[in-house]
## 1
Amino acid sequence: MGETPTLAQLKAGQVATGDLRFDFADVPVITRAFAPMVRELRYDVCELAIGTFLQAKAHGKSIVLLPVVLAARLQEAALVCLAGSDLRSPADLAGRRVGVRSYSQTTGMWVRGIVEEEFGVRADQVRWVTQEPPHVLEAVDPPWTERASQGADLLAMLRAGEIDAVIAGEMPKAPDLRTVFPNPTAAGEEFRARHGFLPINHMLTVRQDVVERRPDLPSTLVALFRQLSSEDGGLPVGRAEVDSGVSLALRLAGAQGMLPGPMTLDEVWAGLPDGTAERCAAG
């Protein structure tokens, strides 16, 4: 798990964990755990970006999604351009070149979905310039992408005029940059009001063989993280709370060419023992 207040509570033993004992892997940046999890199944329990998980599930990886959100946020401030750019709003992105670390990056998925929903610009109307392939080795980027030269820096490419905008993990603090959304906070709050949730970045996952050995584990973990969430700002926990966000992420991933074919919500949750949410609520 990433270094968050929730993880700090677990490490400090501030919540009762029953018979569970956590052996925390030393991963300073949580995104570095994603590839080992989906390629090697390295961890029993692992935080994963929802976009990475959907690709992994679509390609048959033995990983089970738990209805536990570990990171969610407004996404609009991640789309940046030069301060003097002629991009007046995301509506001007059609036909442009936009850099993103990986096409499968979850923030990029949400930004593309928001741009299409609010401004009518589809993912395939933009040329996406990427630095990295997907975490899932079998996943293939769609034809409207291209790979930047090895070692290329997206902000340097932006300043050199090689691309028109960048999706950054965080808004860089530089006077020569601005957001493409004129008011990203207001746009984000409009999304939340319209959909009723914050876009999901990361969720909790468990290896399928671990669930098969201990089918009670998902309920135990969900109950634990429900308690942690109530003490740590209230990130959503439970199918009823997360299904809307997961459903929209699934629809966006499919529409943007991130998945090899259609996938249903039932397939997304495959492997989660029946009644997990009900047992957690009862507990």
Note: The longest helix spans residues 239-255.
## 2
Amino acid sequence: MIGYLESVISGERRGFMPAILKCKLALISWIYLGAVKLRRWLYSIGIWRVRHLPCKVISVGNVVAGGSGKTPAVMAVVRMLSEHTDLNMAVLSRGYRSKIRGSAVVSDGDSILLTAVEAGDEPHLLGRSLPDVPVLIGKDRFETGLKAIREWNCKAIVLDDGFQHLRLARDIDIITIDATRPFGFDHLLPRGYLREPLSNLRYADIILLTRVDQCKNLDMVRGRLAEIAPSVPVFESIYEPRSLRSLDTGQDMGLDTIRGKNILAVCGIANPASFADILGSLDTGKVELLSFPDHHKYPPGSIEKIRLKAAESDAEIIVTTEKDAPKLKSIGNYPVLSLTIELKFLGTEEKRFVEILSKFARRS
């Protein structure tokens, strides 16, 4: 059903019934737009109160639903702040699909305290990838932030997916945009994938384009951003593969482990084609892609589907994402590896990004 809807809203599927469906979706989108505008207006005039934490707050968010690269961007921001400031930090996430009610600590900076099922995929990944930084979940980011300040004396909070969390004041808003799927088909949900109008990009302090190496019309993307938010600096980045890890042993391996090998790429993420493209750039043999819906849980039926697809495609190794890794293990006789990636700025972009980030972090 999701694949059918995307083919309708993208314009790929044409005809009478798709046209009727698009009209119905457009009507709901107009209602959604009204709600989004009303909500921002109520916060802007003070009817709904914006709360301020007694520390720096850096938000990494998006305007397009789905994977825009927020999680790798959060990791990059934390790394830069660690290297260029002396601020104690914590990461706060809403905990999408978490089994925990209220707030909870995913990682205390030393140990992972919740499973991926309990914490949610992205917070668990952040906890595993940021070993020295506490990671907390909770729908009320203000209360969760106060908890981080009390327990770890945090001087900076990094919000994962914070652009729509208007209840909490931010010192800097970073918007990530997937260059391969940048504008959500130019319609709000559910007619398109926009969480709010593209014009709201003007409220951002930084726009971070991801996957620019996979974008076939980058000049068009740059041009539209210059029209929509001309005063907001735009940075460009790619996802650089770093290493592989065995899901059985936890052993880290070099990227040459899969050189020349036939690969079955398995993932449950918003942009599976991007993952397959990254693997294809690593001098592998044939790469077959088997994708599932975002945040897939991999029940026994899915595991059997993976095993059959691996046999059918003559795969020698199964490779998955870091987000999917906690939910998978060896499948039949096939080893399963997870690919570690890192957000990398192009050229001297990182130096300029750090300068802006550090300026906001030092601002009183």
Note: The first strand starts at residue 56 and ends at 61.
